[in-house]
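WARN no homologs supplied; continuing
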Amino acid sequence: MMRLLFQWVMSILYVIQNAIMMLIMGIVFFPWALVSPKGASTACNTYATWAIWTARWMVGIRSEIRGNIPTDAVLVPAKHQSFLDIMMIYKAVPQPRFIMKYELLFTPIIGVYAWRLGCVPVRRGKRGAAIKAMLADVESGRVPPGQLVIYPQGTRVRAGDYTPYKVGPYVLYKETGQAAVPVATNAGLFWPKGTMLRKPGLAVVEFLDPIEQGQDQKAFMKHLEDVIETRSNDLMREAGFDPDAVG
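OK structure emitted
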């Protein structure tokens, strides 16, 4: 009981200091970010480094990147369980660009950073229009070359839960002609959705084997879902959590 209470106290302190540091860094770097994408990327990298480092010594979350990190222009369809997996991917790849919720563009300060980083905003609930907007942004060159991160399930998914995969990754795969590098994670076990409690353990983000060009929609979507879900479940079992026991 005392250990759990201590973890709660440290988790709350971690969340508070993390929010304060995000605000401070956002304001300090804002003028640079406003005039240069380099300023935005430096700010985000600095914040992610701080958040991951303090998570280790304040709440016991260690982080590990596995697999071959892509460095060329590819799609990165990733399992999304936590804000932590976003930061780990951001720090791992050299030129990250995220497919993100359209509403974030209008968030004070954060919207400017997202715009400067070359993120691609999409409107939820309007799948056809969202896909056309994604393609238009990618094809127009507004989104610089790099690693375009997309969440196939369209949202954060609690560890052990299942949400169907959406077709967006295949559309980008087909239209851009790029390979797709799937990503698995177990980060949601330690930085769960919907709570301030942070749990100690080893959070892993793993880059899997690329899916090269040439697959049709059915084959691609099945392959993508199979490899991401299977490996994410393996990583969760490695951490002592049985995803088959949920539900």
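The chain has a mean pLDDT of 90.
OK
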